[in-house]
Amino acid sequence: MEKNKVRQSNLELLRIVCMGLIILAHCIQHGNGNNWKMLHSAFSTNHVFATILGNWGYLGVSGFILISCYFISEQKINYKTKKLVQLILQVMFYCLILAIIGVLINGFSWNFILKEVLTPFYSQYWFITSYLVFYLISPYLNVLTKNLQLESLKKIVIVLTIVIPYYLILWEDVFGNISYFIYYYFIISYLKRKENNFFERNRYQIFFIGMIMITLCSLGITLLGTYLNSTTILNQTTKINTTNNIILTMISISMFYIFKKMKIPYIKFINKLGKTTFGIYILHENLLFTENISLLWDKIFKVNQLWLSPYFPIYILQAMLIVFIIGAIIETIRSKIIDDFLLKKCTILDQICKKIDNWYIGELKSKEKTTISF
Questions:
Q1: Which of 53, 14, 36 is nearest to 319 (CA)?
Q2: Which residues lie closer than 8 Å to 374 by C-beta, 6 or more apart?
Q3: Nearest to 255 by CA among 68, 62, 98
Q4: Residue 138 counted as domain residue
Q5: What is the C-alpha separation between 156 and 40, in angstroms, rounded?
Q6: Per residue, what are the HEC states of 272-310?
Q7: Cα 60 to Cα 17: distance, rounded to the nearest angstrom
């Protein structure tokens, strides 16, 4: 039990690091006029800092997916409708509050209001939308992966490694994002059963070599685009570090094992802080803060004015910490009031959710011990 608590604490620490990477990436993406203008600009000292600090959002996302897949695959064949309800209510809470603030700041807009009200079903948060669908099908994936022989599971991972990146290049939509969740789920399921696997043994080498390769490649494209004065080439810098990049997938798996194998004591605070990361993501990446000229990064943090400052890297790190800390405080308060107080007292919701759980996975347990091979 103590070992499991330490492992969970390690992965919650990884979740915190991943959220830091995501916030930094959103700062670079939305700051200085939006649409990755900092990374699409000509080569400069601050461009190097922007690449090193803010080019790893998809690595953070991949880390989140791996953590989610790991914890879900650890479970027995079960399903909790209440978890989905809590996530939907969490998203709706922030969207409705921020919709009201948006109306007070910018005036009434049907387009803005509808996007906020229809979230998470409108893919304002592609990660949340994809996660909801993935969680719905996860009990069936759980049965499938547990019943597959190791060699069969390996074959599926190899095929998906070939197919998924090209699928995402052609169709970068909600279904494409869900396919990546499924792909990572098969990877985690295979690696868990393959003790002392390649990524576990070589986690540090893969991580650092991969990070250096992607960073040098991004900077090399920037140098070439600057030398040729080509906007088209400069715009390619952000297409390297995406989820359909096999090198990034390898980096994210190695990062997962680095944290999983860390020998640090169990710290309850880390677990509590890790659980606020979903709320931090929903809060800071809302339409109110990111559409057009970014309210959060350019109007509040003045990133556009500090882009040419020698203190730029220090400033965006400070901005990331401020967003994280304030978001964590707000999410902790929301969780205490809504999740721990209001929802726990709603016994009718518990009863309804349990009936849905039993209906949804009632036939699955009879299939737990069927072995599948091909």
A1: 53
A2: 152, 155
A3: 62
A4: yes
A5: 37
A6: HHHCCHHHHHHHHCCHHHHCCCCHHHHHHCCHHHHCCCC
A7: 8
Residue 36 domain boundaries: 2-367
Q: How far is CA 320 from CA 26, 193, 284, 297, in A?
A: 9, 37, 10, 10
**Does 373 map to a domain?**
no
289-330: pLDDT as tens digits: 887 778 899 999 999 999 999 999 999 999 999 999 999 999
Q: Is the pTM of this model over 0.85?
A: yes
Helix or strand holding residue 117 (H, E): helix 110-118
Domains identified in the chain, total number: 1
Task: Report if residue 139 sits inside a domain.
Answer: yes
Residue with tokens 């809302």: 286
Question: Largest Cα–Cα distance in the chain?
Answer: 66
The rounded distance, in Å, linking the Cα atoms of 39 and 46 is: 10
Q: Tokens standing for 85?
A: 């309800």
Q: 2 CB contacts (<8 Å, ≥6 apart)?
A: 266
CA gap 254, 201 in Å, rounded: 9
Instruction: Enter the tokens of residue 67.
Output: 């953590």
Paired with 148 in beta bridges are: 372
The neighbour count for residue 307, using CB atoms within 10 Å, is 21
Query: Per-residue pLDDT tens for 156-212?
Result: 999 988 887 666 555 555 566 788 899 999 999 999 998 889 999 999 999 999 999
Q: What letter represents residue 245's amino acid? A: N
How big is the chain, counted in residues? 374
148 falls within a domain: yes
